[in-house]
UniProtKB/TrEMBL annotation:
This is Thymidylate synthase. One of its GO terms (molecular function) is thymidylate synthase activity. The active site is at C199, C199 (nucleophile). The lineage of its organism: Bacteria, Bacillati, Bacillota, Bacilli, Bacillales. Belongs to the thymidylate synthase family. Bacterial-type ThyA subfamily. It comes from Oceanobacillus bengalensis. NCBIfam families: PRK01827.1-2 (NF002496), thym_sym (TIGR03284). Its EC number is 2.1.1.45.
Length: 317
């Protein structure tokens, strides 16, 4: 299974064979364990066409990881709100929060219009404080030792740090056939200090025939909302590293542990499955930038992306 069909087949497989399971968010899921998809990056950039997936959010989040940043201020400056809920939850659970009760805000905001109005008001205030108040941003905007920290500043028992991303790029250049081109985001010691333990936990690069491929192991995948982002994000990362290492792109291989569809996403998934796939877009990078650490949002161009309309669904926090 390749291309967008691989993703749609995953959705069908979960709905047809998955187990109904409770989960951390008390939303409920239909879940399977162990699945793999393959995407040939020479056949197009794997951004879904059966619903619009916002590329700028994916690109800005990836650049956030690459920078080693863990504070949502950079994301908010780029109009990216995908990590807001985890930072917001940290604030509303603090002694400093004096607003209305926001317990279980993710679910309640979908079910109660009055509550949703209060929630949106509190979230707006929270975002404004993150953007303008340095002390507040440091305290409540930081998500802890999440992806960017582990990729760029892995802490050792000797209190040194390892720049995994920089080291892997150097390794690909110097010893392309190594079987050790690996980056891990799963640092057991730091898990308690993360707003959300890493879902995409480990990835490995592979060079053959002048092409760079990447395989991701993802322990947990929100198949409707999260996995389309993950596919495109790691495809973009593969393009970036291939560019710096003067290689062509090969495959992105996506291996999932617990792949699940939340119970309040069933209707949206079935709507998406009724739509016809369209040709995948292509991605163009600014060739004047030699290092992935120099890229900004304006250095990416998505060409011929013509998807079906977006499909909204609540996020489980």
């Amino acid at each position: 299974m390749t291309g967008e069909k691989a993703y749609l087949d995953l959705c069908k497989h979960i709905l047809n064979t998955g187990f109904n399971r409770d989960d951390r968010t008390n939303t409920g899921t239909c879940s399977i364990f162990g699945y793999q998809m393959r995407f040939n990056l020479n056949e197009g950039f794997p951004l879904l066409t059966t619903k619009r997936v916002p590329f700028k959010l994916i690109a800005s989040e990836l650049l956030w990881f690459i920078k080693g940043d863990t504070n949502i201020r950079y994301l908010l400056e780029n109009n990216n709100n995908i990590w807001n809920e985890w930072a917001f939850e940290k604030w509303i659970k603090s002694d400093e929060y004096q607003g209305p009760d926001m317990t279980n805000f993710g679910k309640r905001s979908q079910e109660d219009d009055d509550f949703n109005e209060a929630y949106q008001e509190q979230m707006k205030y929270f975002k404004e404080k993150i953007l303008r108040d340095d002390d507040f941003s440091k305290k409540y905007g930081d998500l802890g030792s999440v992806y960017g920290k582990q990729w760029r500043h892995w802490r050792t028992t000797q209190n040194d740090t390892i720049d995994q991303l920089k080291d892997v790029i150097a390794s690909i250049k110097q010893n392309p056939h190594s079987r050790r081109h690996i980056i891990s985001a799963w640092n057991p010691e730091d898990i308690p200090n993360m707003a959300l333990p890493p879902c995409h936990t480990l990835f490995q690069f592979y060079v053959a025939d002048g092409k760079l491929s990447c395989q991701l192991y993802q322990r947990s995948g929100d198949v409707f909302l999260g996995v389309p982002f993950n596919i495109a994000s790691y495809a973009l990362l593969t393009h970036l590293i291939a560019h710096e290492c003067q290689l062509e792109v090969g495959e992105f291989i996506h291996t999932l542990g617990d792949a699940h569809i939340y119970s309040n996403h069933f209707e949206q998934v079935n709507m998406q499955l009724q739509r016809e796939m369209r040709p995948l877009p292509t991605i163009k990078l600014n060739k004047e930038k030699a290092s992935i650490f120099d890229f900004e949002l304006t250095d990416f161009e998505l060409i011929n992306y013509n998807p079906h309309p977006s499909i909204k669904a609540p996020i489980a926090v």
